[in-house]
Amino acid sequence: MTEYILPLQKLIEEFCRLPGVGKKTAVRYAFSVLGMTEDEVESFACAVVNAKKNVQACEVCGNLSDKPLCAICSDEKRDRKIVCVVEDAKTVMALEKVKEYNGTYHVLGGAISPMNGVSPSDLRIKELITRIGSGEIEEVILATNPNIEGETTAMYLSKLISPLGVRVTRLAYGVPVGADLEYADEVTLLRALDGRRDLK
């Protein structure tokens, strides 16, 4: 016999599938949904479905967008000579909060992690090399997370990009080692951007 009636149990199980959501939080979320009006539940479900259907990867950088090109790649005022390479779209949003960076981005879609079965071919590295090959890019900022996977990815990219005659820099360690960039505050991210260094 399950702890909760079947429809509620199923809802709890679905919430448990979300990263960082444990059993107690999932139960709280499920009961919150039950406390909503029917219109609120329909609006909530509709928002989930619409986001899944309408959010796509930008054709150029891989950032989240509801159009073929994201707002950053569409902005003619952005400096296309500088590309900041990040692991995911959440980091783009975090860096954009700083409001000081005016270049473009390239979202890899993760980091190299042999333990988790993620190899360079699983990431958007080929697309990055193609963008660099266009000749417009002068600097690539490697803004992968300061953990083992992020460092491995940064070193791999540095060795790949350096021979192409493009400046390769890494965010300075204003960001604590082992932390995710998406949780860093604006001041820390600004210092990290300003203190970026060349990778040999």
- Supply the CATH architecture of the largest domain: 3-Layer(aba) Sandwich
Our estimate of the beta-strand percent is: 5-15%
Query: Based on helices, strands and strand pairing, what is the structural class?
Result: alpha/beta
Strand arrangement, major sheet: 4-3-5-6-7
CA-CA gap between termini: 61 Å
Total strands: 7
Average pLDDT, all residues: 91
Largest sheet: 5 strands, mixed
User: Helix amount, in percent?
Assistant: 40-55%
What Rg do the Cα atoms give?
20 Å
Task: Write the CATH fold name of the largest domain.
Answer: Dna Topoisomerase Vi A Subunit, Chain: A, domain 2
Shape: elongated
Q: How many separate domains?
A: 2
Strand and helix order: HHHEEHEHEHEHEHE
Q: How many helices?
A: 8
Indicate the low-confidence ranges by residue numbers.
none
Structure summarized in a few sentences:
The protein has helices spanning 6-16, 23-34, 38-54, 71-74, 89-96, 125-133, 148-161, 186-194, and strands spanning 56-57, 64-65, 79-86, 103-107, 139-142, 167-170, 197-198. It is α/β, with parallel strands linked by helices and 200 residues long. The chain folds into 2 domains: 6-54, RecR Domain 1 (Helicase, Ruva Protein, domain 3), CATH 1.10.8.420; 70-198, Dna Topoisomerase Vi A Subunit, Chain: A, domain 2 (3-Layer(aba) Sandwich), CATH 3.40.1360.10.
